[in-house]
Design a protein that fits this description.
Blueprint: H1 3-20, H2 22-32, H3 43-54, E1 58-62, E2 65-68, H4 69-85, E3 93-97, H5 102-114, E4 117-120, H6 127-137, E5 141-144
Parallel strand pairs: 3-4, 3-5
Antiparallel strand pairs: 1-2
Length: 149
């Protein structure tokens, strides 16, 4: 069997998955092909749009918690205000040292609303290796989860 036959067969086998994902692919293409290139499409604006359109729908499902788009947007806004009050502004960077949980998403979303970049630190790092990672970033703030203190 030639490589061309294998590739064609693989493509045909993957079609059902592609068809199921078509709405997502089309939506992504829409955002890619937006006519007004000056329009900002950021994580923050997408969260706000989803809060307006789908406020009561779940945005985050974690263990037994469900957080709606409206709740998540409000949470991200409170974090953005906190960061702003701490002197963070567009172009700044923060280091985030949290385990995988909803607070991580809210912090990233709040930072994104200000244009603050988040550098995710590896939670298994300790000592000199962690210090080196933080020094590479030169963050204006380090956000640490209590589980990692």
């Amino acid at each position: 069997m030639s490589n061309d036959q294998v590739r064609a067969r693989d493509i045909v086998r993957s079609l059902p998955g592609i068809v199921r994902k078509f709405p997502t692919i089309a939506r992504g293409y829409y955002y890619y092909a937006v006519k007004d290139q000056n329009r900002e499409l950021t994580l923050g604006t997408l969260i706000e749009r989803n809060a307006e359109r789908h406020g009561d729908r779940p945005a985050v499902l974690f263990d037994d918690r469900a957080i709606s788009w409206s709740e998540f947007n409000g949470w991200a806004n409170r974090i953005a205000h906190f960061f702003q009050n701490q002197g963070l502004a567009k172009g700044d960077a923060i280091a985030v040292f949290l385990e995988n949980r909803p607070e991580l998403l809210a912090i990233v979303a709040g930072a994104a609303k200000l244009g603050v970049a988040c550098a995710m630190l590896n939670t298994s790092q300790k000592g000199k290796v962690l210090e080196h990672s933080i020094n590479l970033i030169e963050p204006k703030m380090v956000v640490v989860g209590e589980e990692l203190l």
